[in-house]
Amino acid sequence: MSTPLTVTVERAADGRNVLRAAGEIDASNVADFAEALNAAVNGGSALNVDLSAVDYLDSAAINALVPHAESLEIVANPVLMRVLTVSGLGELTKIRPATESAD
Fold this sequence. Notes:
Radius of gyration: 12 Å
CATH superfamily: STAS domain
Distance between the termini: 30 Å
Largest sheet: 5 strands, mixed
Strand order of the largest sheet: 1-2-3-4-5
CATH architecture: 2-Layer Sandwich
């Protein structure tokens, strides 16, 4: 059974794609996340990845993000900051914690 996850991609006012995920990202649903991520970075354009509504992610999610790290800017739920930092992803791309006032 798949863990609940919602992924949307939209274009921001500045023209950049924004991938927004909500729920949990794990081995049961990472294929959907990776597919949306791959489509959103198609052509190598910069991508904002909004993980502010993601409560949990595992190594499968990290593995989906790493190949695109140079094209990403990640906004993450503060509870994810430790795993994103320990994974080394923070050395490959910009990651900042979401704030309550951020959209």
